[in-house]
Amino acid sequence: MAALGGDGLRLLSVSRPERQPESAALGGPGPGLCCWVSVFSCLSLACSYVGSLYVWKSELPRDHPAVIKRRFTSVLVVSSLSPLCVLLWRELTGIQPGTSLFTLMGFRLEGIFPAALLPLLLTMILFLGPLMQLSMDCPCDLADGLKVVLAPRSWARCLTDMRWLRNQVIAPLTEELVFRACMLPMLAPCTGLGPAVFTCPLFFGVAHFHHIIEQLRFRQSSVGSIFLSAGHLIGPVLCHSFCNYMGFPAVCAALEHPQRRPLLAGYALGVGLFLLLLQPLTDPKLYGSLPLCVLLERTGDSKAPLCS
Prior knowledge:
With 308 residues, the protein is mainly α. The chain has one domain (31-299). The chain has helices at residues 5-15, 22-25, 31-52, 65-93, 101-104, 112-126, 128-137, 142-150, 152-159, 162-191, 193-207, 210-217, 223-229, 237-246, 251-255, 260-281, 291-298. Helix 3 packs antiparallel against helix 10 (162-191), helix 4 packs parallel to helix 10 and helix 6 (112-126) packs parallel to helix 14 (237-246). It is globular. Belongs to the peptidase U48 family. It is found in: Endoplasmic reticulum membrane.
């Protein structure tokens, strides 16, 4: 190598090709066009999901069983077809993820147990105050409450309750599939993994503003209370279902509660512990290899902070 001299070294450094992004290597569109395709694809998914709720014209409120059943059909069809949008995005951008589509969307067995338990535990810690408030206001003790929760009759009633099925099963499954599993792989090559994680909830939040129109139309809430309760935290399906069950924390009720001091302490402790445990419990090493990191490496972003 030394015998080549300075000119030889320069020749070797020039002749060595640099790693190019996947889309450029395949002759696909540039990064700017890829971003526009990604954003447009996510907007199309969000509009399709919300639009499917209004295919059925009805003067009945959204909580009516007939309306819920019709909307089940619509969102299940849209959610089932949503992976096709990711396939179309892949063809338009020329990006090859390097892994199967369903693995990229989060359908994998590796790390499934920590992925199911740790985010749910973290979310329950955040809701420590509301959980304390729920237990204080519940007329039954812990033993009786567990008996009710574990009783087969209770689950049978839940499975025949259209509102329960919507809030705890169908909505978490379909919304997480559309607004996280499908959108995150399309946004990550454009914005990076970190910004994409915070961008997906924007599409999710905007898509939920149609609830405002419905609630105002049927005069179910005031404008202020609607804006406080529209939307929940994006997370795995279990966290989504848990958040749907808990709803927005009743801070105003906690301030007027007879035991407000310990209750407010629980609120503060929950938020503090959540911030303290957020980084260790969301460490990617706990959940196995990240298919999105493979995608980012193939698009030229191999130094993503969450993938290092």
